[in-house]
Amino acid sequence: MLILQASEGFLFVVDCDRGRILYVSESVSQVLNCSQMDLLGQSWFDILHPKDVAKVKEQLSSLDPCPRDRLIDAKTMLPVKTDIPQSLCRLCPGARRSFFCRMKLKSNNNQIKEESDTSSSSRSSTKRKSKLSVDHKYRVIQCTGYLKSWTPIKNEEQDSESEDNLTNHSSLVAIGRIPPNVLESNVPPSLDNHPNIRHVLFISRHSVDGKFLFIDQRATLVIGFLPQEMLGTSFYDYFHHEDIPALAESHKMVIQVPEKVTTQVYRFRCKDNTFIQLQSEWKAFKNPWTTDIEYIIAKNTVFL
């Protein structure tokens, strides 16, 4: 209970095989505006955004019966062997999970009416309303937990034919919470020559033509887009039109030279159609056998 209060979220347990919600804490009403009884026994996939179902199914699969964290030696860059006692594996036979998804938000007509009536009272209210208008039927939830497997207890009435169905049960045990908005959070300023500037770093990987192949989940806390929303789209779709010529030159340069290319500070479009200041360090990775460019790695720094 103390963990839920500290995280301002809700605890839930989902069956990995069918996606059925086995348990959800009462605090879900504060996040999704629905009661505990509304969700118990329901399919989790029914309340997920359709475009997030495939991503969530990936998180529910690949259960490792005895997970081992792969530690890398900083000097040799080789994996370090770690021995985990079998007793520990039996106690926690799962794998950690952390991902973002969109869950259906139960409409609250009174709350919506109240927000619309007071939206003209101040600029801050207008800004708050514009942020809420993005995917107003769904709410972005950060899920953090682990996969858990167990062997159910067989009842005396069950016959031998059902024995096989009792062996491979697994579920996701996680806490869901609204991710913090980094742009509005009260993070202590950095102790440098620019005390009013804060930095957020996230990594992305792109094809040669600039399409997103991978993006760090930390980006969601700043730009609002989920990783699965951006995969396959071009980074030119998010650049401010006035910054595209200079960024196109940097893009051309990173393909031609082996060194890292640092872009100018440019404007990047967020999900609520506002722009943030970003600076990227691009580096092309070439296949050592064919010398063809496999992808472009981008280290992106957000200036807050």
Automatic annotation (TrEMBL):
Any coiled-coil regions, as ranges: none
Q: Which organism is it from?
A: Bactrocera latifrons (Malaysian fruit fly)
Name of this protein = Protein cycle
Q: Keyword NAD: yes or no?
A: no
Record-linked SUPFAM superfamilies: PYP-like sensor domain (PAS domain) (SSF55785)
Main subcellular localisation: nucleus
The record, for InterPro entries, names: Circadian_TF, Nuc_translocat, PAS, PAS-like_dom_sf, PAS_fold
Chain segments annotated as transmembrane:
none
